[in-house]
Amino acid sequence: xxxxxxxxxxxxxxxxxxxxxxxxxxxxxxxxxxxxxxxxxxxxxxxxxxxxxxxxxxxxxxxxxxxxxxxxxxxxxxxxxxxxxxxxxxxxxxxxxxxxxxxxxxxxxxxxxxxx
Length: 116
Hints:
- The protein is an alpha+beta fold and 116 residues long.
- It contains three helices and four strands; from the N terminus they run βαβαβαβ.
- The chain has a four-stranded antiparallel β-sheet with strand order 2-3-1-4.
- The longest helix is centred in the N-terminal third of the chain and has 17 residues, at 16-32.
- It is globular.
- It starts with a strand and ends with a strand.
């Protein structure tokens, strides 16, 4: 059964190209460690809600855009092993590939597939 990691982050609009470059460096690592698909999405039509919304979820500032990303894995076991290897890989370090956004405000989680 497949497994998905989902991420939502607030990225300064001025850092769009830096974010894309960061994602281009990171995507091959995910695939090297077992991911089957990586999807990156730059906020284009993200409404502000009355009670909750993506902006509040990541404490987005006025000059930031909400980004939504997914990483698909063949299973949770492959995902768990892949993440462990990625966190030990020096190519994932802040020096090698700095995040062009505040990672402390990123929200993320792992999700088991629901087969319909």
